[in-house]
Amino acid sequence: MIIDQYKKMKNLFLRQSYIDAWEDYQRSIRKRSFAQWDYIVLTASNEEQANAFQSQITYRQNKNVLPCKTKYLVLPDPDGKRVGSGGATLQVLRKLAEQEDIAGDFHNKRILVIHSGGDSKRVPQYSVCGKLFSPVPRELPDGRASTLFDEFLIGMAGVPSRFREGMLVLSGDVLLLFNPLQIDAQFHGAAAISMKSPVDVGKDHGVFLNNGKDYVKKFLHKQSIETLEKLGAVNTHGNVDLDTGAVLFDVNLMNALLSLVQTDGKIDAEKYARFVNEKSRISLYGDFLYPLAEDSTLEQYYKEQPEGTFCEELTECRTRIWEALHSFGMKLICLSPAEFIHFGTTRELLALLTDEIADYEYLDWKPMVFTNYKSEKKVQAAVHNALIEGTVQLADKCYVENSWLRGNTVLEKDCVISQLELKDVTVPSMVMHGVELKRENGEKRYIVRAYGIKDNPKKTLEERGSFLAGDLRSFINLNNLKTKDIWESEDHSLWKAKLYPVVESQEKAVSWAFLLHRMSSEKADEVKVAEWKSLKRYSLEESFQIADASVLVPWEEKLENRILIERFLNRLRAGEHYVDSLKTFGITELDEKQFDMLMEMAEKELPFEEKIRVLYSISRSMKFMKKNFHGISYDQIEQKCFATIQQEIFRASNVNQVKKYKIAENQVKVSLPVRVNWGGGWTDTPPYCNEKGGVVLNAAILLNGQEPIEVELRKLPEKHIEFASLDLDAHGVVTTAAEIQDCHNPYDSFALHKAALIACGIIPMEGEADLEKILDEMGGGFYMSTCVKGVPKGSGLGTSSILSGACVRALGKFLGTNWSDSDVYELVLNLEQIMSTGGGWQDQVGGLTGGIKYITSRPGMKQKLKVEYLDLDEATKAELQERFALIYTGQRRLARNLLRDVVGNYIGGKKESKEALEEMKHLAVMMRYELEQGDVDAFARLLNEHWEVSKKLDAGSTNTCIDQIFASCEDLIDGKFISGAGGGGFLQVILKKGVSKEMLRAQLLDVYQDSGVDVWDAEFVW
Length: 1022
Known about the structure:
Low-confidence stretches: none
Pfam family, one: GHMP_kinases_N
Largest sheet: 9 strands, mixed
InterPro entries: GDP_fucose_pyrophosphorylase (IPR012887), GHMP_Kinase-Related (IPR052203), GHMP_kinase_C_dom (IPR013750), GHMP_kinase_C_sf (IPR036554), GHMP_kinase_N_dom (IPR006204), HddA/FKP (IPR001174), Ribosomal_Su5_D2-typ_SF (IPR020568)
Keywords: ATP-binding, Kinase, Nucleotide-binding, Transferase
Protein name: Bifunctional fucokinase/L-fucose-1-P-guanylyltransferase
Oligomer: single chain
Organism: Blautia faecis
């Protein structure tokens, strides 16, 4: 119970320390005055790994997620030779001493050194990127997937405030969790940062023996439990002072180390070469720290196990090191509570991320980090920065990192997939690590490194080292191989085995990895084995050395962006408002690469309903963040969104094909009424009606006793077409098809005429066409005029669409077609898409025939309209005619992009818009019911409800003028509504019983006099 309580308190402490460290880290990014590292130095094993490290740093700097004042250095071992952690430390000191702001004086400088130049032999998938940049299973508070490097910088952000000057050295494969306030940096020489850990952990690492005064008495490296207990290193709780690999050096010790390679204060090339070389291979821990322990002796120092091998050169180096350092001591800073997490082998990594991940919940570690993948609870798998399609199957104990799994890919138990794109493959228990090699003659080259979860690449053939489903010995025997087929040296380790063929594509490299797996457990196909033998093959070691590390960050960035995009799309698919969905990308929203990806997906991959929402979201983000990409502005993307809707509707139609016609009548004239809308307006508008279906209730009316819409066609002997817009007093003649195809200019007086000819299939929408030939086949040219009589512009009575309907109907009669009403509705809808007006279908249906119409459609790109005429008794008709009145507001609707605002809100997922549209459909149903029941009062109440809902959908549907008009006659009316979209034009009212239209007119004229506000004569067409 006491132990459990301690563990709980320890976890709470470390969690708070974790949170505090993040806050310190954020301050170091924002505030130059915050105490931070002057230099952060990373060591690397070779030039290529150093370039990989530098690209990771640059990537973070570009994202502004690194401390603002810190300078970064990345230093590879010279000439690709392994010089040991001590040699690397001397190289760091030399490089720092050469920096302009240091110039050999380390005083007042705080330096963090992370030794990260290992080969990662026991976790080979990190040998190229470096174990330092291996994943840590948590998503940082700013949304990034974390790595050891990120955790080091965050965890150490508070340390600079704890000491004035000096250098902190860390081991790149150990994560330390502690509170920096525990560090007492008052020491002379060095200070080892230790923590209490179970002796069972200590025996596999290093242990410090305390002299009783908090100084290091002895170093005990990988000693048995019995030895540790005998020497007094184990306390009564069974814990030791663990060597965490973290050491602080003061300036004096730094200078003493640098003096080893200096003469008269300057770097001596001969001395430097003596200490920094592959043969001596000086160790930071074994060679620099050993002389600092109180009980160390020179005699024993010579016998300490080196990082390389014993040699005369090493002995000479140790003599000089002893002389320079033995006068210094090493303080022991023991942190508690603290945590030591070692990233050791592939097997340990897999266990940590699957079986043991729950132990680190207090650190917000979790198996799924920065991915779109949603795991089933029963599957114990882990994913880090990976894009996984929904058809992919993961079994227990799988781990996927920096990869893209597609199609019907299946991962069986105990799989590790790293840096790969897989599609439609089944992967048995194994590790598969994709590596792109440096190009040869400009050609891309790939290998896939395959090995088993339990494989230790250091193990040899002679030691029966395991390999995939068997061991190295069985691999050779089963496939009749000789050692020289795989190894060029006497070192027969898995690390040195030339197993992995070089091929031109990752897909082929994957297939060879599968062959290796078969070869490890059974006799494989001899032809394939012979082909494998004939190919150029590399070992784990060689592939690491010639890997192209420059591709890692771009690949990870691409994955990161694709994952963010997939998350964004999922939020849109779930119906989220675009404002919330865009937060997926952070506070600055889209960058150029994400924009490019989304635009490419919209063009090639996304279905219609997702494409329009993506385009609309992009346009809003660009507008409000004041961005443009590649010179493209937000309104161009917005236009593309609405054009996509129009194009999709046009494509879905089967009546927009060019046909051969003959003029059937010499003259045709069509007159139509206008319409008033009652219920469900806007639900007929694409894309809402295409996705949800529409429901509308409207009625045809005469205005001042006449049908205001007129279209006339007359046959002409000339082979041309004459256009007229009589209400605009505009006349014109066209002689070419190209003039008609140019029909998208909203200021063209004949745009409607031209679009009608294209929609009806007389003229092709695009491409070359001979107008004279077309007219010759028709039997002559023709005159086409349109006119809207006595209706003010912007009336809200559907005149534009009804005029389109009149054009189509007139053309149908003129050409002798047998178009049904449904054909005409569809042709008009197409006509409006051609004109890019983007309207719905209720206006033309409302005006093409008389009566009160209940119009519905089901979801679908091709809208099939069901038109039902309300069967009202004569009394209801009479009452409705008597109580219904139209009031003209005296003003046109505001000149604003109303359609795009309303439709855009729906596309963008605005909750209020979606709810309002749904409610409008319900109100239309109820209105029909009440009218058929003969209850005009109930109908009036529903009009009032609809008016309130309309204002929720679009606040611009009303204004001060409209509100005042309704207020001025409130005592005379039971119901009120707008015509069309509102904002001006006509208003509709249902008068109280006993109130006449003359009484309404008199009251309005009394208030508004000659301002234009008046009651117009409206008569239903039954």
